[in-house]
C-alpha cells in the first residue's frame, strides 16, 4: 500500500462540521471560527530520527526543520503563523543537552516569525526521537490560496533553486512566509503549494486538485548548486538513474528531490511580467523562475531542445 | 532526569507573543485571536504503542483513547472542541485494517462531540505505532477555568470513580465535556484539571499553580470496582506496596493510578450543597464526590479514622 492509497483510505468517512472551510488535502486545514475577515489555519507535521534527520544531525538544525516544515505549509496558504505546540518523543536514555539544543533551534525560528510556543508534551518513544509540531495561524479570507485554483494558461513559478537538499538545505531552509504574503497582497495567486516531496510530485497535487495539466520547460527549472555538485561527484561513478531521455541527473534532482521548501504557485500569464519586475525589487536575494504553464489537458509534459515528452519522474513516496 | 525536570528545562525561554493568554502548564493553551467573547483552545497529545496501549489492544479503542485524551483536556478548561489533526506514525509493514479501525474509533468519538477531523499526516515510525492528535476548540472568555484558581476553603470534587483504569477504562473513558460546560455555566468553578497522571499527582498540579494545599478525606475518595477487584485478586499473593500506613491498596490505586480521565475541580464551600443537588438531577448516572478541601497551608494531607497524615503517594512519572 502506498502512502497515497493509505491516506485515501484514512480520509474516507472522516467527520466534518460547519467550521471546516478546507479539510484534508491542502497544505493546511482552514477553519471558520467567526472572525469577520480571517480564517484560522491549522497544521501538524512530524519529523522522525532516522527518517527525516540522521542521529548525527546538529540538534539546533533538527529543531529548525521540525517547526520550519509547518511554517512552510502556512506560507503555502499565504498565512501568518501564531502559535505552536511541540510533542517530543524521547528514548528512556536521552541526552538533555541535545534535546535542549533542538528546542533552541526551534525557538529561534519561531521567534523570527513571532510564533509563540505554547506548550506540548514529552512522551516516551523507546527507539528514536520523534518531534511533532502543531501550528495555528490565520489568513485574510480573500487571500487564502489553495491548491485547487490553477487555470489553463496560468504561468507556473517557483522560488529559489531546487534539488540536492539532503546536502544541507533540508535542515536550514527558510520558510517563505513574507514572500507568500507579499505575493497575495499584490497579485491574484491562483494556486500555491510548498515543495516538500519534490517538484514533480507536488506539482501533481496542484494539477489534481485543479483538474488541469502542465507543460514545463526543462531549461527554466532552477537547479541548485548542490544538485549540480552531486551530479559532478557521481560522474566518476556509474551514472545515477536518469528518467528523462537525454537529460542529465541535475535536472532530475531538481524535479524529484524532496524537501526544498520553496513555493510553487500559478498566476494568470498576463501578470507574469509585472510579477517578475516587482519580485526583483522586493526580494533581490531570492531567485524566481517561471518554469512552464498550466494546460487544459491533464498530465505533465516537459519540453527541451529535443522536443516535448511526458514527465514520468515521481517524487519521493513513503511506504513504497 | 525526571519528566518534570525535563519539561521545566524545555519551557525555559520559549518564545511568546501577544496572542497567548495561557501558555505551557495548563490542560490546554489559550489564545486570544480577536473573537469578542471567546478564547481559542489548543492542545496536542500522543499515544505510543507499548507505552499507552499494547499491541493487542482493540484498534477502535486505541483510536478512541488517542482523541479522547485531547477531548478530556478541552473538558478540563470547560471548552468545546472544534477540529482535530491526526498524525499517525506507522512501521513499514503495517496492517491496513488495523489502521483503518483506529480511525474508525477516533472518528466515532469525534462525531459524537461534533469534532471535525481535518487532516494530519502519515509518517514512517519504524518500530511501533505512534498517534499524535492536535485539537482546536473554544471557550467562553468568562468560563475558561485554569488550574490556578483554587482558594483556601474550596471544596474539592471529582467525577466518577478512580483507580484500576488499566483493566479497561483507559481505552473506553468518556471525556467529560458536557459535564464541564454545565458546571461552569451554573457554578463559579475556581480550578479544574482532568485526571490523567493520577489524583495524587494531578491534584498537586492544581495546588502548585494555585499556591495552596489540600486536605483529603480517605473515605470520600471514590474507588472504582476495578481497583477493588485488582486488590482482591492480589490478596492471594504478597501484598502490593502500600504507601499510606494502615490503608489498603484499593485506596492507593484510586489515589495514584493514572488515566481515569475524570474531572477534579474546586468551588467555594458555600456552593457545595447546591452543586451536589443539581448534579444529581443533571447527571444521575455519574457519581460526584467531594473528596476534601483546599487549605492555605501547602502540601497534601489525608485524614482517616486513625488521624491525619501527609500524603506521599505519587502518580506515575515518565522517565524515572
Written account of the structure:
2 copies of one chain form a homodimer. Chain A has 320 residues and is of the alpha+beta class. The first copy, chain A, folds into 2 domains: 3-143, 60s Ribosomal Protein L30, Chain: A (2-Layer Sandwich), CATH 3.30.1330; 147-310, PurM-like C-terminal domain (Phosphoribosyl-aminoimidazole Synthetase, Chain A, domain 2), CATH 3.90.650. The first copy, chain A, has 8 helices and 13 strands. In chain A, strands 8-10-7-11-9-12-13 form a 7-stranded mixed beta sheet, with helices on both faces. In chain A, strands 1-2-3-6-4-5 form a 6-stranded mixed beta sheet. In chain A, helix 2 (59-76) packs parallel to helix 3, helix 2 packs parallel to helix 4 and helix 6 (225-235) crosses helix 7 (249-256). Chain A is globular and about 55 Å long. The model of chain A is unreliable at 239-248 and 315-320 (pLDDT under 50). At the A-B interface, helix 1, strand 3, strand 4, helix 3 and strand 5 of A face helix 1, strand 3, strand 4, helix 3 and strand 5 of B.
Features:
13 strands, globular, Phosphoribosyl-aminoimidazole Synthetase, Chain A, domain 2, homodimer, alpha+beta, 60s Ribosomal Protein L30, Chain: A, disordered C terminus, 320 residues, seven-stranded mixed beta sheet, six-stranded mixed beta sheet
- Arithmetic mean pLDDT of chain A: 91
Structural domains of chain A: how many: 2
CATH class of the largest domain in chain A: Alpha Beta
CATH superfamily of the largest domain in chain A: PurM-like C-terminal domain
Shape of chain A: globular
Distance between the termini of chain A: 7 Å
Given helix and strand content, the structural type of chain A is alpha+beta
Using only CA atoms, what is the Rg of chain A?
20 Å
Number of helices of chain A: 8
| Number of E-type strands of chain A | 13
What kind of oligomer do you see? homodimer
Strand order of the largest sheet of chain A: 8-10-7-11-9-12-13
Uncertain runs of chain A are 239-248, 315-320
CATH architecture of the largest domain in chain A: Alpha-Beta Complex
Helix-strand sequence of chain A:
HEEEHEHEEEHEHEHHEHEEE
Question: Largest chain-chain contact?
Answer: A-B, 71 and 71 residues
User: Helix share of residues of chain A?
Assistant: 25-40%
Please state roughly what percent of the residues of chain A sit in beta strands, choosing from under 5%, 5-15%, 15-25%, 25-35%, 35-45% or over 45%: 25-35%
- Main sheet: strands, sense, barrel of chain A: 7 strands, mixed
